[in-house]
């Protein structure tokens, strides 16, 4: 089972690295659970994050495996992505083939712009919840939740909430006991 974390220009560092730490600690420490995690970007080239950290993805869209779980982070770059019809179409395509779509921070804005959150509960960074409602007034915005699990879509609030969402993923995909092991290992 493959978990993919999307990288793009202007992605928020902790939106990527927080979930990565949790998921990589789990998948590398417990390969018997059957999951692996990787990063990817549209073209497979390094991306510059919101605060100038440079990350090199392991895959491009073209050579990435089929994702069972997709993590769409947020950050300054989502301001472009919510208007990028090619990216929104790609997100819709992922929705059709990926069992579990997750977002961190303003990644939920991209999901909303793509129509994935219609009539669903969701959250985002506290500064953007009004824009989330603007993008789709049918969304039941849960401003105070660290993450919202609505079955096949999970949205996390801002930045550090991605860590909580990733721990929840371990609990949901493996077990609460495994999540507790991972939390202890990363001292979270």
UniProtKB/TrEMBL annotation:
Do you know which CDD domains this protein is assigned to?
Answer: GATase1_PfpI_2
The DJ-1/PfpI domain sits at 3-171
Q: What is its EC number?
A: 4.2.1.-
Does the record's keyword annotation contain Lyase?
yes
Q: Which Gene Ontology terms cover its molecular function?
A: lyase activity
Statement: the UniProt record of this protein carries the keyword Lipid metabolism: no
Q: Which SUPFAM superfamilies match?
A: Class I glutamine amidotransferase-like
Organism domain of life: Bacteria
The UniProt entry, under InterPro entries, shows: Class_I_gatase-like, DJ-1/PfpI, INH-QAR
**UniProtKB keywords:** Lyase
Pfam families given for it? Answer: DJ-1_PfpI
User: PANTHER family attached here?
Assistant: ARAC-FAMILY TRANSCRIPTIONAL REGULATOR (PTHR43130), HTH-TYPE TRANSCRIPTIONAL REGULATOR RV1931C (PTHR43130:SF3)
Designated name of the protein: DJ-1/PfpI family protein
Q: Which organism is it from?
A: Lentzea rhizosphaerae
């Amino acid at each position: 089972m493959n978990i993919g974390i999307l990288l793009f220009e202007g992605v928020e560092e902790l939106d990527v690295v927080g979930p990565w730490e949790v998921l990589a600690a789990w998948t590398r420490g417990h390969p018997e659970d059957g999951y692996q995690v990787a990063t990817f970007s549209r073209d497979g080239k390094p991306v510059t994050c919101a605060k100038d950290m440079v990350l090199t993805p392991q895959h491009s869209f073209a050579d990435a495996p089929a994702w069972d779980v997709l993590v769409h982070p947020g950050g300054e770059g989502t301001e472009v992505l919510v208007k990028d019809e090619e990216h929104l179409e790609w997100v819709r395509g992922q929705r059709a083939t990926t069992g579990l779509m997750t977002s961190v921070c303003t990644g939920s804005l991209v999901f909303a712009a793509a129509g994935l959150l219609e009539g669903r509960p969701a959250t985002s960074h506290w500064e953007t919840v009004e824009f989330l409602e603007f993008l789709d007034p049918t969304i039941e915005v849960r401003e105070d939740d660290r993450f919202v699990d609505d079955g096949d879509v999970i949205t996390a609030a801002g930045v550090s909430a991605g860590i909580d969402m990733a721990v929840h993923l371990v609990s949901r995909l493996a077990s609460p006991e495994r999540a507790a092991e991972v939390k202890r290992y990363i001292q979270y």
